[in-house]
Write a structure and sequence with these properties.
Two copies of one chain form a homodimer.
Chain A: H1 4-11, H2 18-25, E1 29-33, E2 38-40, E3 48-54, E4 56-62, E5 68-75, E6 79-80, H3 83-88, E7 95-98, E8 102-108, H4 109-118, H5 120-146, H6 149-159, H7 161-166, H8 169-176, H9 180-188
Antiparallel strand pairs in A: 1-8, 2-7, 3-6, 3-8, 4-5, 4-7
The structure holds a DNA duplex.
Chain lengths: ~190, ~190
DNA sequence: TGTATTTCTTAATATAGATTATTTTTCTCT
DNA sequence: AGAGAAAAATAATCTATATTAAGAAATACA
């Protein structure tokens, strides 16, 4: 039987048949990932999509100066991967790491292609997921262009309190493109 | 008959039947847009996807200080729209404007939904398009985090010379999140 | 062909946020 | 509970880029 959480995620946007659900289920693998463990590191070819059942991940790269720059967080019911490496079959620049002890369902690119080959509804689901991510990216760009460091932090605390609670401040700073010191200063000045 | 350019774009990623192509064609409208003309302005609900046959567009917003901030450019064979406003049926914050005299094929959200309702291949095409955009966004984020103003400009000139030729410098500056003055200085110092 | 508008450059000054170094607090694990 | 590690705060200094203002090229357009 397909995992209930994933089924609900899919049913938000698409209506595959029971058969399609079960076929998709057969392509998935359950994994537990410990806090700080990596599911992807620089230089590897990214092979999987990950659906987060429980826990929290971050994807980041390390710049020339050795500083971590976070591109994305992922929490329950989100998909996380490096699309660039996955679709272009090239080595990734990214690290994807568990921030908490986590549980995921993972699926290889090949199996994903299989699932997408004959199901309109699965194509619809992943199309809509990609469009949602696109919207999130656009909003993020909008914020980063439009707001000062302080405003970004304030906005984020309002809109995503669940992230602020569970993610260390220095990771949030990295996600906003700020230094932890500066974010700490912002916080101090109310 | 469906437009050749659009057909080729679709065939890159999907293989709809001739019938599906023709059905899709019936949902499209051809429009010519003059340089500086807007196809979307702040406050409107975005109603269309636009496929660019010829010309060049920019999507931007105007911040509190009255400065234009460019989120994206679009050229031949790209789709452009405000996905956020379109899918969430809310007023847009963006302007989409022709940078050159242009020709587009446009399709309403309703017609797009129709096309996507019964064609696996069209779902596949738009899924892959969304994934490509996602990758482009991620790369952009990567550059903006990792590179100085000068490095961004140099990289962009190398990777997208066709944009640098046809788009005014002050618009590129806005796209990079820099001021035109600073970009001009960068350029001057070789 | 000349005038207006748009685009680009230069230069002086200002500032948001980075860097570096130190200290304090909080978490984690035995 | 206590030691060590991880995370956060504080503060001084520095720097990349913004801002403002003026003028020079380039382009469009009448």
């Amino acid at each position: 039987m397909i995992n209930k959480q994933l089924k609900n995620s899919i049913l938000q946007f698409a209506t595959p048949s029971d058969e399609t659900f079960e076929e998709f289920n057969d392509l998935l693998e359950y994994r537990e990932i410990n806090k700080k463990e990596f599911i992807l590191t620089k230089g590897q070819n990214c092979k999987h999509h990950y659906f987060i059942l429980k826990g929290c991940f971050r994807s980041f790269f390390i710049n020339e100066k050795g500083t971590e720059k976070i591109l994305n967080f992922g929490i329950e019911n989100w998909w996380i991967t490096d699309y660039d490496s996955l679709t272009n079959l090239c080595p990734t620049n990214l690290y994807i790491q568990a921030i908490e002890n986590s549980q995921v369902l993972c699926i290889t690119k090949e199996n994903m292609d299989k699932a997408l080959n004959h199901s309109l509804e699965m194509n619809r689901y992943f199309r809509i997921i990609a469009e949602k991510v696109r919207i999130a990216d656009q909003r993020r760009m909008y914020y980063m262009f439009n707001l000062s460091g302080k405003e970004i932090y304030t906005m984020f605390c309002e809109k995503f309190p669940e992230f602020v609670q569970r993610i260390p401040l220095y990771m949030l700073a990295s996600y906003f493109g700020l230094t932890p010191e500066f974010l700490s200063k912002i916080r101090g000045n109310g």
